[in-house]
């Protein structure tokens, strides 16, 4: 069973990290991990133009998402600093009296 578990772990890593892509002429082959531990890899063929368009759209969506999340992080960071300063002033006022 150790061998099967190791192979299942390798397939999980393949799905999460590795994105094997091969190009032959005007086709791009995207090789996905098999859905079964003992199965064969799944190969998808796309024309180069479709592949590049898809990667470009995904990259643009990721950039927009990163910008939005960065703005949200900055808002929360500013809010926490302001609330921390107010809390510090209230505590200083309470203990000074």
Tags for this model:
97 residues, alpha+beta, 3-stranded antiparallel beta sheet, 2 helices
Explain this structure to me?
By secondary structure, this protein is an alpha+beta fold. The protein has one domain (2-96). The protein has helices at 2-16, 48-96; strands at residues 21-24, 27-32, 42-47. Strands 1-2-3 form a three-stranded antiparallel beta sheet. It is elongated, with a radius of gyration of 25 Å. It starts with a helix and ends with a helix. 1% of the residues are buried. The mean pLDDT is 89.
Strand order of the largest sheet: 1-2-3
Helicity, as a percent range? 55-70%
In whole angstroms, the N-to-C terminal distance is: 70 Å
Give the beta-strand count: 3
Question: What's the structural blueprint in terms of helices and strands?
Answer:
Blueprint: H1 2-16, E1 21-24, E2 27-32, E3 42-47, H2 48-96
Antiparallel strand pairs: 1-2, 2-3
Please summarize what this structure is.
The protein is α+β, with helices and mostly antiparallel strands. The chain has helices spanning 2-16, 48-96, and strands at residues 21-24, 27-32, 42-47.
């Amino acid at each position: 069973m150790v061998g099967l578990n190791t192979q299942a772990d390798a397939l999980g890593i393949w799905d999460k990290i590795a994105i094997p892509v091969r190009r032959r002429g005007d086709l791009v082959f995207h090789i996905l991990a098999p859905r079964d531990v003992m199965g064969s890899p799944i190969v998808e063929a796309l024309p180069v133009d479709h592949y590049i368009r898809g990667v470009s759209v995904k990259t643009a969506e990721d950039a927009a998402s990163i910008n939005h999340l960065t703005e949200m992080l900055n808002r929360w960071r500013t809010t926490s600093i302001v609330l921390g300063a107010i809390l510090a002033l209230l505590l200083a006022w309470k203990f000074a009296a």
